[in-house]
Amino acid sequence: MSSPAVLKKPLKLACIQLASGADKTANLKHAADQVAKAASGGSKLVVLPECFNSPYGTDYFPQYAETLLPSPPSEEQAPSYHALSRIASDNKVYLVGGSIPEFNPSTKKYHNTSLIFGPDGKLLATHRKVHLFDIDIPGKISFHESDVLSPGNQITLVDLPEYGSIAVAICYDVRFPELATIAARKGAFALVYPGAFNLTTGPLHWKLLAQARAVDNQIYVAMCSPARDLDASYHAYGHTLVVDPMAQVLDEAEAGEAIIQVELVDEKLAETRRNIALNTQRRFDVYPDVSKGKIQFEDPDLETPK
Ligand SMILES: O=C(O)CCC(=O)C(=O)O
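Above: inputs. Below: predicted complex with 2-oxoglutaric acid.
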């Protein structure tokens, strides 16, 4: 059964368009300062960008990778894990910790991994990017995450008990509408994507994809980018944004560092479904429901190795 999204009470969401550099310790400290600012503005769910603790690029993944398993990892193995846990508990927020490069010693694989912590600092979920960013646009951009990374194997739904559930996925995952639709039909009220689009696909597709996933699924969509740094090897698009269930952009950053904060309310979800009643108009006699059948919500590789 699909269950329409419910948001049990209003939720202030912040997305932090963070400027990061080569110094991991400095990046973690800066993230802590910015999350504290968002929390003092009343946000209870805070999102950081993709690869917020390192520069973004295949050359950097091994150098910055942390070992997260067995969980919980030690402080030396995974300083970012512990920093995120402390940031969440110090500020009493749900924290979608952007993503970090991960090395799994038992499979010898690298992943692009998001850690989600609760307000008590406990790890709630782990999402490894399912769709790796491999593209070739001649003369513009060629990028192959799969040269170094392996994909994750699950759709990640995270229960925030006082509010309801969100789905977390990473950047290129937003291009795959099935993942979003399955999460929405399982009751997520928001799709949250730490991401780092570029100056070729960003202007064309970033906002379009956020609005597309929102309008398809009639739920909120948040996409959180690093700030643009033209001295870095990868030029992030920026334009962190939050879109409502009618696909209206509630707030959008420009290219530089920024915190955007918006209030999510159940009435907007309900009103959208009432006004445009897609949920009762679907024709599963004509095409299949992608949220039925075999769907993986648990990645076998994420189990703590024996
Ligand atoms: O899909 C795109 O155009 C960009 C994706 C990306 O930058 C990523 O997955 O990190």
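Residues 50, 133, 171-172, 175, 196-198, 201, 205 surround 2-oxoglutaric acid (CB under 6 Å).
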